[in-house]
Amino acid sequence: MRKMNTPKRIPGGKPQGAREVAMSVLHNVETRGAYSGLELNQALNAAELSRPDAALATELVYGTIQRLNTIDYELGKRVKGWPRKVEPWVRSLLRLSYYQLRWLSRVPAHAVVDEAVRIAKKRGHAGIGGLVNGVLRGLLRDGFDTVLPAELSAAERISLNQSHPLWLVERWVERFGERATENMCAAGNEHPRASARVNPLRGTREQIVSGMTDAGMEVLPSALAEAGIVAIKAGNLGHTDWYRQGFISIQDESSMLVAAVADPKPGMRVLDCCAAPGGKSTHMAERMRNEGVVIANDVHPHKEALIRQQADRLGLSIVETTTGDALGLSERIAPESCDVVLLDAPCSGLGVIRRKPEIKWNKTEDDIASLAQLQGKLLEQAQSMVKPGGALVYSTCTIASEENEDVVRAFLINHPEYALDPVWPEEVLAPLRESGNLPDGFEGMLQLLPQMFGSDGFFIARMRKKLR
Ligand SMILES: C[S@@+](CC[C@H](N)C(=O)[O-])C[C@H]1O[C@@H](n2cnc3c(N)ncnc32)[C@H](O)[C@@H]1O
């Protein structure tokens, strides 16, 4: 879903109903490069849909973006000049209708077609209505199995069946093999599970799981993160008193491993270079039992308040927020003054495709190369503030060796005073070992893949600065 140069408005005024809202969001994501999450929130607020309709619009937006490759492949067989020669809003309408007919069986097929034709006529003309009617009824007649030509490569087949861009699938097949890549892409199409992190200053995981269960929520302790709770059927955890009163934070289970690997102790001085919205800063402060200091820095001034709000909600007074480019941090923070420095770097996000599906269509190999350069520079800054004997932790939510292992290896070549540190807390290593996901000869770098635990794809490396 690359941004096009000539954005056009959808004719026919304000969107009404779930499908029109979804269509307008998809249109804006494609034509203006808008973020699906932000765009959807704004559209839902403006349209004042009922809860079921808002849920349907949400499902249509995310599902259509997730399955875009497969949808376009199938529509390309039926619509002349697809997709370029078709009006962008008609494209969005056909795509979301295809998604609904193939993957959302709870809506009767005739209702999907009738509604799509109604929207096409209302916003276009009878001719567009006829096109939409013909395409959708043809699909209903012929069925929805994607039959691919036998001569396709494994990567081409996975790309079309699992709807991921070919360049990405080719890289992953080369590195992880066909089976793991297919599983990874399938995991990328799953709905993300909601999970929460327990604030140990307010209660234990057992207490909170049992309190939630008593309240009728279906939750489980995380198999990956010691502080994690996975929601099976629990509604929006962010709307509960557990959240409002600081018992829990909403965080992915993989993300929870980062503070566990950093493992700061009470009384330490800790720096989080790229901290907003504060998930890992607050987690580290919790693990430090609110003793010591966590300096939470981010480049964007408006994000400082987000970190502050989280720290206040959780009752963490040791989180000190600062704003500035992490590339200039060493001008503001004394050299070798921190026991632990975390660089949770900006990255291509290929591990969080489940949450932000447009990443698949917006990111390019050039983005990976330029992010890798920035990450190398950020790590260079971050290291200068680590005390001798202290820890430097580097993490990303992506699955690209250039942004992960290569950044760390290049750094270590230039910094013989650092070494990878494989001595991670047993709470992190045990679940990895027991599930067969701890690499042989583990050196202190871990690439978590989304299919391993159903959590985000994440990379974590822990390095130690040698004592002089
Ligand atoms: C992966 S997110 C951090 C998530 C955060 N650690 C958490 O767990 O909530 C990366 C953050 O880096 C920030 N960022 C990007 N470039 C930066 C820079 N040059 N200096 C400082 N922060 C930066 C972004 O604003 C973004 O909030």
Automatic annotation (TrEMBL):
Specifically methylates the cytosine at position 967 (m5C967) of 16S rRNA. PANTHER family: NOP2 YEAST -RELATED NOL1/NOP2/FMU SUN DOMAIN-CONTAINING, RIBOSOMAL RNA SMALL SUBUNIT METHYLTRANSFERASE B-RELATED. This is 16S rRNA (cytosine(967)-C(5))-methyltransferase. The keyword S-adenosyl-L-methionine applies. Belongs to the class I-like SAM-binding methyltransferase superfamily. RsmB/NOP family. Its EC number is 2.1.1.176. GO terms for biological process: regulation of DNA-templated transcription. Keywords: Cytoplasm, Methyltransferase, RNA-binding, rRNA processing, S-adenosyl-L-methionine, Transferase. It comes from the Bacteria. The keyword Glycosyltransferase does not apply. Residues 184-466 form the SAM-dependent MTase RsmB/NOP-type domain. It is an enzyme of class 2 (transferase). It catalyses: cytidine(967) in 16S rRNA + S-adenosyl-L-methionine = 5-methylcytidine(967) in 16S rRNA + S-adenosyl-L-homocysteine + H(+). S-adenosyl-L-methionine binds at residues 274-280, 298, 325, 344. NCBIfam families: PRK14902.1, rsmB. Its main location: cytoplasm.
